[in-house]
Each structure stands twice: as structure tokens, then as C-alpha cells.
């Protein structure tokens, strides 16, 4: 049953404010607290907001100066400085995971020595990649595939036509390809990658998003034919280690450093960001003041920088399957399901 609350009922107001999670104020305190949202005049509201923002900034600077002074004083006295505050992020507050790789995990090293990628990573076999598309290709699909060919050495493109994917897998095995990449498109846009390890698997299905081709990157560079260096970041779990080794098996294990090419797979919150760069060494003149302070003495100094070559895109692992592609009888190692996303701090790679 509903009832009207009395106008002067202070206990009811405090109870209601506590339920809502807001601090309770009596009538006198409410008069002193002025929020910008309570002011109807737009100009006055903007001035009050700017004033409060400036006061917060001044208070923050005072805290920083006090912390720096305390640290300087501790160093002068020979004491240990106070510990620096580490900001809390989603990455450093992630949920504990038992599958995180450890340097003393003998079982992990045994699995690595016996996995499907070992011949390529031990340089016993040279990686050779076949790239194809889905049956209905798009306008951006060929442009994306041509840029993939410039990124991955020893890669060939074959038109899909009407062939079944299992027949293409058998063809790639006969031609001694070590991997097969299928670019799937939807609504004239590449939206997925299917990577199949040959001859024994595994098969990984990735969702593809945020694709930017080379021509759309400002001040992009043109890659050379040198074999690139490979950088894999933040693949910390057993599943992440397996996915990272899968990417590693696509590239030769002897990079040519003269080409100054870098291919990066950066994992952050289970999103894998792909980037392709060249690093350039610019020689610039460094002007330092002479003894008189007027004439400058020119000295050369080398300044490195990165130049993006493209393409850039983002991958999200959907499934990882044992063996080659098999939709009916295939055994899945890992499948992403919506009910697994129970927390923002739970990651799998």
C-alpha cells in the first residue's frame, strides 16, 4: 500500500537517500551544497562548473607537490621513499586464472614439444600459406588479400570458385602448404578469418573487425620483400600461448633485420590487434649552444620512429578446433559462449 510522506519527516528523507546510495543532508546542509545541475541559468551554471573544476585541479596539484616533497626529503635523509600509487586498471585487476603460463610448468613445455607447430618453429619445415575466400567474395576482399600476401612471406592466393572447403584442404596438403587462411566476407566487408593448420590442424575461427587498408592509412609506408620480425604480446594463458604459436607458425623463423619490418599481434582484453610497421632511423642535426650562447654547434643524432604499412585490423577468437576443418564430427578445444562473459575482468587469452 502506498502512503504520502509527511513534509517534515526527516527520518524518511535520510532513509530514502541511504537506499538510493546518496549522502543524506539535512535542510541546512542542502542549502550550502550547490551542484551545477541545480542551476537553471546556463551561463551561471557554466561558471560554477568551471570554478569547481579549477578547485579540483588545484587540490590535485597540491597533493602531487606534497608527494614529491616527501619523496625528495626521504632521499635526502637516506630513507626509502614512499611507494608510488599504482592506478587500478582492468588488466591488473583481472580475475585469477589457473591456466596462466609459468616458467616452471613442465607440463606446458611437454605440450609445446609435442604440438602441431613444432616442425615449423624448429625450422625443420619452411612455412607455406595458401589464402582463399568464401564462395561469395566482396569488393574489399581482394584488396585485403593482396595486403595479407605482402605481410606473410611464401603465401599464395587461389580463387575459391565452387569448391568445398574440405577439398581445398586436401589440395593444400598435396601441395605441401603448412597453413590455409580463408577470408570470409559479409555485406561486401571481410568479417572473419578461418586459419587451418596443415596437415593435422588445429583450426581457429576469428571474428574480424576495424579493418583499415593501406591506402586509408595516412603517411603509410610500402613494405619490402624482407622477412619480418614478429612480436607477440600478452598471450599469457595456455590457450593464449597456443593461439600465439599458431600465429607464429605462419611466418618464417629467420627474420631479415635489414628490412626493418615488424608484424605485431597485441592481445588486450582478448582482442588481438594486428599492426604492420617499418622502423626508420632519421639523422637530424642537434643544435647545442656554444660557449658564447649565440653560435650553435650542429651535431648529428639518430632518432628512430615507426611508419605504419598496413593493413590494421582486430581479431576476436570464436572457436579453436582439433584437426582440420570439420563442422559435423570435429572436436573443439575452446568455444566462446555468451554466458562466459560474466565479468569485465575475466580474460581467456
UniProtKB/TrEMBL annotation:
Region named Disordered:
1-33, 50-79
Q: Biased-composition ranges for Basic residues? A: 50-65
- Which PROSITE patterns does the record cross-reference, listed alphabetically? BRIX
Please name the InterPro entries in this protein's record.
Brix, IMP4/RPF1
Q: Which GO terms describe its biological process?
A: maturation of 5.8S rRNA; maturation of LSU-rRNA
Q: Name one GO molecular function term.
A: rRNA primary transcript binding
GO cellular-component term (any): preribosome, large subunit precursor
The name under which this protein is listed is BnaA09g52220D protein
> Whose protein is this, by species?
Brassica napus
Q: Gene of origin?
A: BnaA09g52220D
Amino acid at each position: 500500500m502506498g502512503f504520502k510522506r509527511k513534509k517534515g519527516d526527516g527520518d524518511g528523507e535520510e532513509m530514502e537517500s541511504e537506499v538510493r546510495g546518496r549522502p543524506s543532508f539535512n535542510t541546512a546542509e542542502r542549502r550550502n551544497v550547490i551542484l551545477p545541475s541545480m542551476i537553471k541559468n546556463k551561463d551561471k551554471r557554466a561558471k560554477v562548473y568551471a570554478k569547481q573544476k579549477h578547485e579540483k585541479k588545484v587540490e590535485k596539484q597540491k597533493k602531487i607537490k606534497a608527494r614529491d616533497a616527501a619523496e625528495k626529503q626521504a632521499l635526502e635523509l637516506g630513507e626509502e621513499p614512499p611507494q608510488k600509487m599504482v592506478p587500478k586498471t582492468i588488466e591488473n585487476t583481472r580475475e585469477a586464472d589457473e591456466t596462466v603460463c609459468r616458467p616452471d610448468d613442465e607440463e606446458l613445455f611437454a605440450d609445446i614439444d609435442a604440438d602441431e607447430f613444432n616442425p615449423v618453429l624448429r625450422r625443420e619445415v619452411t612455412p607455406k600459406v595458401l589464402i582463399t575466400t568464401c564462395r561469395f567474395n566482396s569488393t574489399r576482399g581482394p584488396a585485403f588479400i593482396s595486403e595479407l600476401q605482402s605481410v606473410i612471406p611464401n603465401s599464395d592466393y587461389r580463387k575459391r570458385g565452387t569448391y568445398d572447403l574440405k577439398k581445398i584442404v586436401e589440395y593444400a596438403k598435396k601441395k605441401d602448404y603448412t597453413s590455409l587462411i580463408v577470408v570470409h566476407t559479409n555485406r561486401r566487408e571481410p568479417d572473419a578469418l578461418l586459419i587451418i593448420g596443415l596437415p593435422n590442424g588445429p583450426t581457429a575461427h576469428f571474428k574480424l573487425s576495424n579493418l583499415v587498408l593501406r591506402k586509408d592509412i595516412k603517411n603509410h609506408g610500402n613494405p619490402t620483400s624482407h622477412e619480418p620480425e614478429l612480436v607477440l604480446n600478452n598471450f599469457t594463458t595456455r590457450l593464449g600461448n597456443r593461439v600465439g604459436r599458431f600465429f607464429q607458425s605462419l611466418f618464417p623463423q629467420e627474420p631479415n633485420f635489414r628490412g626493418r619490418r615488424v608484424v605485431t599481434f597485441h592481445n588486450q582484453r582478448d582482442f588481438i590487434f594486428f599492426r604492420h610497421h617499418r622502423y626508420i632511423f632519421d639523422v637530424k642535426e642537434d643544435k647545442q649552444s656554444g660557449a658564447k650562447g649565440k653560435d650553435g654547434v650542429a651535431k648529428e643524432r639518430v632518432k628512430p620512429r615507426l611508419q605504419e604499412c598496413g593493413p590494421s585490423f582486430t581479431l576476436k577468437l570464436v572457436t579453436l578446433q582439433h584437426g582440420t576443418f570439420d563442422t559435423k564430427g570435429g572436436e573443439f578445444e575452446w568455444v566462446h559462449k555468451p554466458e562466459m562473459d560474466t565479468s569485465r575482468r575475466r580474460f581467456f587469452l
